[in-house]
Hints:
- By secondary structure, the chain is α/β, with parallel strands linked by helices.
- The protein has helices at about 10-20, 50-60, 65-70, 80-85, 115-120, 120-145, 160-175, 185-190, 200-205, 210-220, 230-250, 265-275, 295-300, 315, 425-435, 455-475, and strands at about 30-35, 45, 90-95, 100, 110-115, 150-155, 180, 225, 255-260, 285, 310, 330-335, 340, 355-360, 370-375, 385-390, 390-395, 405, 410-415, 415, 450-455.
Amino acid sequence: MSISALLTDLYQLTMLAGYHARQMHEQEAVFDLYFRTPPYRGSYAVFAGLQPALDYLQGVQFQSQEIEYLASLGLFEQSFLDWLSDFRFRGRVLAPAEGTPVFPHTPLLTLEGSLAEVQLVETALLNIVNFQTLVATKAARLSQAAAPAIVVDFGLRRAQGPDGALSVARAAAVGGVGATSNLLAGFRFGLPVKGTQAHSWVMAFDTELESFRAYAESFPDSCTLLVDTYDTLRSGVPNAIKVAQELREKGFELVGIRLDSGDLAWLSRKARQMFNDAGFPQVRIVASNELDEDLIEAIQNDGGRVDIYGVGTKLATCAGEGGGALGGVYKLVSIDGRPTLKSTSDPAKASLPGQKNLYRVQDAKGTSLFDLITLKNEPITCGDEVFDPENLQRSQRIPVGAELVELRRPVLDDGELLCKEEGLETMAGRCSQQLDRLPEGSLRLVNPHRYKVSISRGLQQLRQRLLTEIAEKVTGLNPCEGK
Length: 483
């Protein structure tokens, strides 16, 4: 799915026009894309959206009608519009693999190239990566809460438009959601598609049993029945058992039932017992109805016997405390070979300047201990002191015997992909495996363990030097001196 070059904010083009007029547009520049706070008051996010971002970067260009539209705004010189007509992205991109758990301040995407090309793509990249990473994180939380049950995406009708529904289905798969009801997503991304029936099917027949029999006749080897239209335990489940018996006599087995209302923990326990007693322990129980990870965890803890959770609204809209949007940002960290820094009133929240490497520090068992951000080519050894980027008074040392695993690699250079496109199942497997390697307590839904991110001494010193230079330029006061 191609993305128009006009999917950007106006100020991107006004800045580019200004750079172009001053012959600054070809200066070498580096931008980092990262976030400051994990969503949902959790400890992590799951990186997603890389392949759509790379597809965008490879294909971004201005069509003739788009140039005509820009000309109609009366803002831009013809020489700039002519330059835009030939625009292609030819920069270099570094990124972790999709499905990797990621943490605050760590650079996810780094873009290197001319100032014009790496500036222009900011808005679209944030749009893609922020949303897909948020959805993948929500999906991972749902999957962790539901395990060993699986989660299916039922969110198409509640998603923010057709494009949003497709992005949700893709990113949810990265986070561990096992299937989708969205046929277009199944077609486009090769995802398993699942579905049952609506209450309207049951209501369209004279009796519930007649509706169940009709559905089983049409789909004898993939029949899942919605049992809560009238009365779940007195009507729906008994009628489903009758149909299960009739299917078995014909050489088929009832696949499952769906519960869409009521006390799902209690109803699933009762339904499970009724099917077991009738000789159908294989019938799976699907639960839906405004589910999120907190409710799923409560059902699981209350002894619920749900095999599949269909999650719609809360997944498609990324609902939840601390959710709604991932606050990813895109900051200039180097221009013309000179490291740059965005300063704030709180020095601990200043951006991290310069080109950098990102490592995951692991112990001998493969457990992730913390992430480490260093300057590019900075030598790092076990025993080195490293610092909390939000509180430089807190430090730790890299444990002796620890392994430093580089998390990112070049993925695009001069328009050419440098990595093979992965399947969503591979990404989901990576997500699950790496989440399991996080320290104990990191996956708690409430008050999780805070996974640490540290910066190297060289990066800390560079940031402090730039903060000092900025303060001297602005106020003439060295911030290390008393006021």
